[in-house]
Structure prediction request, 243 residues.
Amino acid sequence: MINRTSPIPLYFQLAEVLKQEIQSGALAVGSKLPTENELCEQYSVSRSVVRQALQSLSQENLIETERGRGAFVLERKVPIEMVQQLDPLQESMAKAGFKLTTRVLRQELISAPPYIADQIGESEAIFLERLRFADGIVFLVVRNYLPYSRTPDLLASEDLNEVSLYRHLAERYDIVATTGKRQVELAKLNDQRTASLLQVELGSYVLFNREVTYDQNKKVVEYYESWHHPDRTRLTIDLQRRY
Prediction:
């Protein structure tokens, strides 16, 4: 239940309550969640708290919101743990024989949405939106969120079209990305802007990544989300069993 004396934000507590109901089966796959008004009354919270909680669940792909119909529980994904190299995309693509080019679309300071602030540990973020091309053909939309306090002058950097972000952070700030936690899944694309940038139809299924990356001091480097063109991307994973 909601603990109003806890330092944990109300929206996060509500999201956890709903998540537990989904994971326990109390809210079954395909079932409709209570309306915003019903959740407000049931948990005695404001509509903004409910909306933030639903947004958090949507970002975890636990629910899907349909305009005019409400929010519905999505089928649970089977988690598969993998170990991968944290190589810059530019290097891995060069090894595969592709020329990677980047176009920075947005580079600005934002007030981070709650679910992003939770990931990076602060409320202000440097937001980068980038479109990436393989041999001149768009295949990837990336949105990066970096803690503003760590790299405030990154906003003035003019060479992010040309260099790897990780290399830039290492050379300019001595922030070396060493570890990360990545989730990869097939997701339905419901955002018109992303669909247009990726040149796919709204509602298409794409390969969706989300990742938190940490540096050599175990501090958060960034949180990012990316959407891969379904016909122009292949995921290859090197496997090694550990005994």
The radius of gyration is 19 Å. The CA atoms of residues 39 and 98 lie 50 Å apart.
